[in-house]
Predict the structure.
Amino acid sequence: MLNNDKLIIGGHEFDSRFILGSGKYSLDLIKAAIESAKAEIITLALRRAATGNIANILDYIPKGITILPNTSGARNADEAVRIARLSREIGCGDFVKIEVIRDSKYLLPDNYETTKAVEILAKENFIVMPYMYPDLNAARDMQNAGAAAIMPLGAPIGSNKGLCTKEFIKILIDEINLPIIIDAGIGAPSQACEAMEMGAAAVMANTAIATSGDIVLMASAFKKAIEAGREAYISGLGRIIDKAEASSPLTGFLHE
Amino acid sequence: MFIVNGKEIENSDGILLEKYINENGFKKERIAVEINGVIIKKSDYSNYVINKGDNIIIVSFVGGG
């Protein structure tokens, strides 16, 4: 077990490196999923409220969990800024995950508009975590604009296709001096583990869990995979060679 | 008449925002309110009198990724 291996985002420390999404599953499972995931950050979305005393998701989230509102629905920087400001006004802290999407088929993020939103919100003391297409220049722009972490996609949102952008995420991990958190597309614990092995600071997952056979059990599986990948990264993976190299001693055989 | 989340509300002009919120089952600590494009701070709910033609957006959190 690793001690004092903290994920630090905007000056806030976390022990967990698993950011859990809360979409597409029942409110009744939220608490159990958070506990099973040992997650400390959960994403939420902002929508027009319905009248009447209907259940609110905040009532199902244990105290002490950091709320990470997203700006889903935003089609440009101005809309993302508006959603972020309204989200903060609810009163759950300064974190925001910027999502600016104009493409309804693949839900790919608009890096240019996202960077503009990062700049505006960072100046307003938000802890800004932009969801982005893994492009080094855009990531640098977001870093310079005041982002607290960078959240590149592994594959299109909700696709469960895994680390399709692996090589480009590696570049971000090598070149950007901020936590790189893989967001979107991670479909299986093995993929989350692989992302962590290569040095991602954290993994965010929602659909992989929401569409699994057992949400609470899958949350636990992801937790373990993310921890395993982190320990492997800290340890440093063993080297790869082209030929075999015996693991057992090559002396003292019985036939000698 | 004013508008809340796109729906026209008749015969309530002149009431306090806080009263409207309470009477319609919204919880102050779970929502944010924007009127005519301006965010209204929670501390101002008890001061804001809803005007004729106000466009009110009331939002809250839902599950999302």
